[in-house]
Amino acid sequence: MSGQELPTGWAAAEIGDLPAPEPNSLTDGPFGSKLKSAHYVASGVRVVRLGNIGAGTFNDTDRAFIEKSHFQELEKHAIGPGDLVVAALAEPVGRCCEVPENIGPALVKADCLRFKPTQHVERRFVMHWLNSPIGRKAIEELSHGIGRLRINIQDLKQAPIPLAPLPEQRRIVEKIEALTARSRGAREALDSLPTLIDRYRQSILAAAFRGELTAEWRNDRDAAEDGLPTGWAWRTTAEIIDEGPTNGYSPKAAPDGNGTASLRLSATTSGRMILDGSTIKKLLEVISEDSKFWLRSGDILVQRANSLEYLGATAIYQGAEKSFIYPDLMMRVRIADPSLRTYFWRYMNGQSARRWLRERATGTAGNMPKISGATLKELPVPVPPPGERAVINRRIDQAFAAIDRLEQVSLENESRLATLDQSILAKAFRGELVPQDPNDEPASVLLERIRAERAAAGVAPRRGRRGGGKASA
């Protein structure tokens, strides 16, 4: 950012101008054998890792600790409340957040940089700059690596930062955080939607399988003695299906395999068939044309082994015949009647059926939970007469289509919020977010004061030359 592009009163600086004039105010974490996973203990001194560093947010869920005696050997890498931590490794490289007040004794790990700015700048101004679109681009240009970028301390020191007068820095930070607090509230509301949407879907399914979704159509709100509406009957899966259950086949696969295409377990986890690069694998083996494992349109696939949450997840394959086989962790059933097939698929993804299967799963004490074909055959299903079944399928589809539209709007709004936050930061560092005050001390004077303080403390002046390797300032 050249001087001509800076707002009035701002000055061009580099990150290396801004560390506090004290030892290790800009340093990285210990590398190699000094700190490794074997050193971690259940409690003690906190280790801040890459997973803790968000863009403006400290992620406190990923916790690791080392013994206090070990920390004493690594005090050069200590951090404290209010320090900035910078991710030296993507994604994205250079993201930055502030260390929270309740961190306690702590240090940074390798690939994390600890940055304590001078008292003459607003540290959150620096943090927001590093997380801004222009700041992020500047960091990326100074980084190294192919695929996953990495930045070292010497490179970070070279990163440009447009320095506003100190009072304006404070106004900018206050405005950014007021605006992003609103978007954060909106994002939190959006984050709660998936759970609410899933509950709504399940409530629709539960109402459908109790006969409540069609009570008005049936003009009969009374349940029979067996708990079902008039005309309904309990049937086992064995009585419903025409063929199966049949377990799949899982020969060896390879990234460069050129054999038959097979579904991965993830293809049906959502309860819908998803066919893309992440849910299909290529086998080393070519499956014969007469194999029983080829899928055909209308085949129902049930996950017979997975975590309890996904055990029994069911989807219907709608595609060309002999394009895919299915893995051993799934079993296939076939139902000729399209209306009954759709109804059974919906029922299998409802809470009642999934709960019944979970309660009868084996291997729940540590191994992957499993259900057998025999267990699936015993599953009781409340089956309505054909006419009502068709109405139920149609009403579930209509309700789910409305929910899908709501979900899509939610995703679009979430994307807009991310764009909005970045546009706020971009506007801030163009000097357009808050009014300027001509009475503010120019940033050039502030920068000279910072440099004078560093010189008085014996800190070498900035040379403006890129270097490599580890260092501290």
Can you walk me through this structure?
By secondary structure, this protein is an alpha+beta fold. It folds into three domains: 3-165 and 441-456, DNA methylase specificity domains (Adenine-n6-DNA-methyltransferase TaqI, Chain A, domain 2); 186-231 and 384-432, no CATH class; 233-376, Alpha-Beta Complex (Adenine-n6-DNA-methyltransferase TaqI, Chain A, domain 2), CATH 3.90.220.20. The chain has helices spanning 68-71, 123-131, 133-142, 153-158, 166-209, 215-218, 237-240, 338-348, 351-359, 373-378, 386-428, 443-456; strands at residues 11-14, 26-28, 45-48, 65-66, 78-79, 84-87, 96-98, 106-108, 112-115, 160-163, 233-236, 243-247, 261-263, 280-282, 300-303, 314-316, 330-334, 380-383. Strands 2-9-6-7 form a four-stranded antiparallel beta sheet, covered by helices on one side. Strands 4-3-8-5 form a four-stranded mixed beta sheet. The chain has a four-stranded antiparallel beta sheet with strand order 12-17-15-16. Helix 8 crosses helix 11 (386-428). It is elongated, with a radius of gyration of 30 Å. It starts with 10 loop residues before the first strand and ends in a 17-residue tail after the last helix. Mean pLDDT is 89; it is low at 464-472.
Structural class: alpha+beta
Q: How many β-strand runs?
A: 18
Question: Main sheet?
Answer: 4 strands, antiparallel
Gap from first CA to last CA: 24 Å
* Name of the top-level CATH class of the largest domain: Alpha Beta
CATH 4th-level superfamily of the largest domain: DNA methylase specificity domains
Total helical segments: 12
The CATH topology of the largest domain comes to: Adenine-n6-DNA-methyltransferase TaqI, Chain A, domain 2
Please state how the strands of the largest beta sheet are arranged side by side. Answer: 2-9-6-7
The whole-angstrom Rg is 30 Å
Query: Could you list the spans in which at least 5 consecutive residues all have pLDDT below 50?
Result: 464-472
Shape: elongated
The second-level CATH architecture of the largest domain is Alpha-Beta Complex
Mean pLDDT: 89
Please trace the helix and strand order, writing H or E for each element: EEEEHEEEEEHHHEHHEHEEEEEEHHHEHH
Number of discrete domains: 3
In percent, how helical is the residue content? Answer: 25-40%
What fraction of residues sit in β-strands?
A: 5-15%
